[in-house]
Design a protein that fits this description.
Elements (H helix, E strand, L loop, with lengths): L1 H8 L11 H19 L11 H17 L6 H18 L8 H30 L7 H28 L5 H120 L7 H6 L17 H14 L5 H9 L11 H22 L5 H4 L13
């Protein structure tokens, strides 16, 4: 009953799964060989290897996957199939594998078990794909490896059997013929898949190549753009540097021009300041000369031009009323830039109260009077009158030149 149940589990009962007819026929012959082996009491184990047991374990695992509708174990099934194939091939590595008993074991136990494993595996693979044409590369290759192993083992056994003269079961001959047909079908589809795979791989390589070329082109363009940007930045930096240098040169030139102008203005102010001092002497001399053709030598000597460097004089006697009052009166009345010229004309003419004083003496007294009046106002806490503040000291250069 267990054997009959195993065979029923190997039957394809789904209309959506299209097993090759040759494989269905090969499975029937495998069942016949298995039944004959049981009748002849052929041992299930040879040299410590039990292919039938390994196959049964694989079939139970696949049965659980199918019961759970788990179609994601393709890689696991390929691994299990490869393990069974290794066990089957290892039998031929035993020292006594080509004995009569061993040859009969291969024909009735090993090869039928591999065919049954192929059938169970293909039913699992096709439960998702439906037909062989829709199988992917790896499961198709896994089935092809089983048919290839069956053919290789049978050919090696047949080569040894020509010497041993062990008769091959007719069911084994028929089964192997069907497996060779299945192998051709799998090889044909596998070649087609390889071509498709190679075409896809080639297309993928071309796509990757194009992408790399595009990336390389983009990188090259980006590098060129970066270099152009660097070149532009360098040019801009150079232009900016030239502009800065040009601006600095212009600014330096303007500063030199401005400095030269200021120096020239200062020199002009110095000349005007010195000239003003000389003019004061001319004005004083002119006031003295009014109504006279000439002056006595001693008077001329007293009124002669005194350079600024020697403008300080000994303090002469100034009468408070006759001299100082008149000077203060003139400073207040004539306050302004021409104060001394006007004082000279009024008070230094012939018979005037300040006729005895020269330019240096009058200026020295006026400045002394200004300082005294400012000190008194400060002590009294009063505001100083503007005419006092405006009393000039022509002996000193302009404030900007001090």
């Amino acid at each position: 009953e267990d054997e009959e149940e195993d065979r029923n589990n190997e039957v394809n009962d789904s209309e959506d799964i299209h097993i090759p007819e040759q494989l269905d026929e090969a499975l029937e012959f495998a069942h016949d060989l298995d039944e004959a082996a049981n009748s002849d009491h052929v041992p299930e184990e040879l040299g410590g290897i039990n292919i039938l047991k390994s196959y049964s374990r694989l079939k139970k695992i696949v049965g659980r996957w199918r019961s759970a509708n788990d179609n994601t174990r393709t890689d696991d099934l390929i691994t299990l199939s490869n393990d069974v194939l290794k066990e089957a091939k290892s039998i031929l590595e035993k020292s006594d594998w080509n004995g009569e008993r061993a040859l009969k074991h291969v024909y009735t136990r090993v090869l039928p078990s591999l065919v049954r494993m192929l059938y169970v595996s293909m039913v699992y693979y096709l439960s998702e794909a439906g037909t062989i044409k829709r199988l992917s590369y790896e499961p198709l290759k896994g089935c092809r490896n089983v048919t290839k192993a069956v053919i290789e083992i049978s050919e090696k056994v047949q080569s040894s059997n020509t010497r041993k003269k062990v008769p091959r079961p007719r069911a084994a001959i028929a089964m192997l013929a069907r497996i060779k047909n299945v192998h051709e079908i799998l090889e044909r589809h596998l070649r087609m898949l390889k071509q498709v795979k190679h075409a896809a791989e080639y297309a993928e390589k071309q796509r990757v190549k194009r992408e790399r070329q595009q990336v390389a082109a983009l990188e090259a363009e980006a590098e060129n753009a970066r270099r152009r940007q660097i070149q532009r930045e360098r040019q801009q930096a150079a232009e900016l540097e030239r502009e800065v240098e040009h601006t600095q040169r212009q600014q330096s030139r303007r500063e030199r021009q401005r400095a030269a102008e200021l120096q020239e203005q200062n020199e002009l102010k110095i000349r005007n300041w010195r000239e003003h001092w000389r003019v004061l002497h001319d004005q004083r001399f002119g006031a003295e000369l009014e109504g006279q053709f000439c002056l006595p030598l001693d008077k001329q000597q007293h009124l002669k031009f005194i350079p600024l460097e020697s403008a300080s004089v000994e303090y002469p006697y100034w009468h408070p009323h006759d001299h100082v009052y008149c000077l203060g009166e003139g400073l207040q009345e004539f306050a302004g830039p021409d104060v001394y010229r006007k004082i000279f004309r009024r008070y230094c003419c012939r018979g005037g109260p300040l006729q005895d004083f020269n330019v240096s003496e009058i200026v020295d007294k006026a400045v002394s009077l200004r300082d005294s009046l400012m000190m008194v106002a400060a002590e009294d806490g009063e505001d100083q009158e503007q005419w006092v503040l405006d009393i000039p000291d022509p002996r000193k250069p302009p404030a900007a030149l001090r």
